[in-house]
Amino acid sequence: MSQFFIENNFLKVGINQVGAEFASLQSVEDGTEYLWQADPKFWGRHSCILFPYIGKVWDDKFQIGEKTYHGKQHGFARNMPFEKVLLEKEKAIFQLKHNKKTLDEYPYKFSLLMKYVLEKNQLHIIYEVENLDDQPIYFSLGAHPGFNVPLKKNEKRSDYSLEFEKAESAETLEITDGYLDGNSRDVFDGKNTIPITDDLFDKDALVFKHLDSNFLHLKNSAGEKIWTFTFEDFSYLGIWSQNQESPFVCIEPWFGVADELNASWDFRKKEGVVELGVGKKFSCKHSVVIY
Questions:
Q1: Which of 28, 127, 130, 158 is at 20 to 30 A from 151, Cα to Cα?
Q2: Residue among 32, 13, 36 nearest 241 (CA)
Q3: What values do phi and psi take at 252, rounded to 5?
Q4: pLDDT tens for residues 18-70?
Q5: Which domains does the chain have, with CATH numbers?
Q6: pTM
Q7: Cα(267)–Cα(158) distance, integer angstroms
């Protein structure tokens, strides 16, 4: 598997050609690895890109027009090789375009650009979808980066917490077998902090819609900020880890969400889906600052 690197005086970032998945986020100063290293015992990926849909589609199929398409969780982009468009010292761009394989699974002609840009101790990840079709296209788009939590051998994951920019009232949308089940529950209790307790993910991911905050911090037991993750303008935010023993936490900004149980198969009416006109471009960005 080809892997490419960008680097400055603060951070070194590794990016896999397959899925344009960023696979390493290291401190240049002390070599600390902040990104989850895909141990298959827990979760065998680093930071997969979710396109053209988020989560599961009901019964692994969906309808567009008169045709039924089949697809697995989170779409095909994460498993496909991207073309390297640009590789500079502090910037890399990769592209996935429609091809015979994608058109068999998803009928629209598109370009998906992934841009990785370093700015001092911050990594910007920029997504750009362009409609190359002669009709509007419909898609969801999201990120799935996993971060090492804890970072030190003498720590536990439960020594850490997530502190949001603002106190939140949004409830997490509950999941059953990978699908939204129509229920929700409060995890904020009017506060801005979620302790990463051992049982936090016993009911699968936390999924929030329209949070007031634009960023969150990972903090250790001493209250020190480890990193700040910015997700401004995204419609949804997922937070996930595999089980109580998994030493990582994923922060997942999304445009789109998994289907509900027994959902309609009309992909164009899927919750959170983006409609993009002919010749138009859609872009979004999330960033992480390392302290």
A1: 127
A2: 36
A3: -130, 95
A4: 999 999 999 999 999 999 999 999 999 999 999 999 999 999 999 998 999 99
A5: 3-290 (2.70.98.10)
A6: 0.97
A7: 39
